[in-house]
Amino acid sequence: MLTARKVAKTYENGTQALRDINLTVNRGEVVYILGESGAGKTTFLKLLLGMEKPTAGELVLAGISLINPRPEEIRRLRRQTGAVFQDFKLILGRTARENVALSLRILGVGWATNKKQSEAALAAVGLADKMDNLVGTLSWGERQRVALARAVVRKPQLLLADEPTGNLDEVSVGYVAQMLTLAVEGGSTLIVATHDSRLIERLPGRILVLKEGSLTKEPASLRGQTACCDGGVE
Ligand SMILES: Nc1ncnc2c1ncn2[C@@H]1O[C@H](COP(=O)(O)OP(=O)(O)OP(=O)(O)O)[C@@H](O)[C@H]1O
Ligand SMILES: [Mg+2]
Question: Best of 21, 42, 162, 192 to mutate for ligand 1, by most ligand atoms within 8 A of CB?
């Protein structure tokens, strides 16, 4: 699904956000990226969405090189990708249901199927009773769950989530974990930047740690909680 070889990202102001990243992620894997603030987690996810370009190395996602992709290749990748970022990018003046439905409409899903799937996705994140509320009136944690429903409803090959449980309470973390589990069961590959052990306990996966832009092995204290920790970082 994903191969990174000696990937680096240096921003124009000289900040070295990622250094010498070597990584292979297989289809259907769950991968967590841990690391302190500023370690490069969001930058890595942005490379995978084609929002930023690597400044060195090779990065291939679903057979497409992200070093110098053509616009149509980026469009193709984005259709197959669901993403939840820290700023959500929801339409505040539309309802939760409309926001989720729009994600399916772009893929050409018909009205009746769209309605059914959007409602099911919002119910799965605990928002059955808030579907018709304007997103602008929802709490931050509720918006976060709408954004996740919108990303997962399109059954993406790759699901990228940046701190999907930041500031959420236990019950909401449970909904997020349940939704991510559904995505994995549906065949999505999952790459999640998180600090949240509550999420990792509920949905085991391979743990990678970014430290000042470099990948290190997972910390010993988190080993044992994870189902699969072999390989990957080379
Ligand atoms: N557009 C940008 N221009 C310049 N530097 C940037 C830019 N975006 C991020 N950086 C820098 O790159 C480094 C990595 O940032 P990034 O946002 O990837 O970290 P992060 O691990 O996601 O942190 P957090 O946990 O706080 O979200 C930081 O030093 C940050 O200041
Ligand atoms: Mg970040």
Answer: 42
